[in-house]
Amino acid sequence: xxxxxxxxxxxxxxxxxxxxxxxxxxxxxxxxxxxxxxxxxxxxxxxxxxxxxxxxxxxxxxxxxxxxxxxxxxxxxxxxxxxxxxxxxxxxxxxxxxxxxxxxxxxxxxxxxxxxxxxxxxxxxxxxxxxxxxxxxxxxxxxxxxxxxxxxxxxxxxxxxxxxxxxxxxxxxxxxxxxxxxxxxxxxxxxxxxxxxxxxxxxxxxxxxxxxxxxxxxxxxxxxxxxxxxxxxxxxxxxxxxxxxxxxxxxxxxxxxxxxxxxxxxxxxxxxxxxx
Length: 276
Description:
Blueprint: H1 58-61, E1 63-66, E2 72-75, E3 79-81, E4 87-93, E5 96-99, E6 105-108, E7 114-117, E8 122-126, E9 134-137, E10 143-147, E11 150-152, E12 158-160, E13 162-164, E14 167-170, E15 175-179, E16 185-188, E17 193-197, E18 208-211, E19 217-220, E20 224-226, E21 232-238, E22 241-244, E23 250-253, E24 259-262, E25 267-271
């Protein structure tokens, strides 16, 4: 798969300030040599205001956002994952975020920490709850791993998780989980209890370093695909397929587990080369 998107990083305005004036004393000259001459004009100061007026790009909107119901929504470069786990395609143009096939738009405030929607709803930038992050062991000694908004089960399957009202929620089976006061037990609504553990979780067969057809190096972890251009995408592994969250691409392993075959025909080869 040829991945050529780049992450937009906005420039910060750095206008030139004329806050210094050099004061000097004219050199002493004999009276008969002093002539009246016009003072030389100073060249005009140029101030670059283009950066200050630059419209927000996709990178400015990316992150976790808390909506008015305290649900956490995740915005990537081209998708919005709502707190109910529905994924919408988005575009950013003219400094506004717009949901594809809809007239709904959102704008950032000057601090990039408040998102105001065209219907009046206001979201605040937040962090994905970190107290749920880690490895958790169930009663059968299976180890499950939670990172960000993904839950990797002990069998390698990955599920999307949501956070609302201080709880973790799995929309696919309507389960919720809450932490105890010590943050070491995860108590599920079906009565199951997981204990936080330092034991490592099993890794997916897709995990590793991969070289694409253009010799670019990409890294796959249990929950993310780190592209050669430093952009990261959330991934999901299910039914022997790797799916990239922010596009329609899927990949499968060949029989040797040494090649990653993408749905667009691109083939990546497992390598030991370190990412640049």
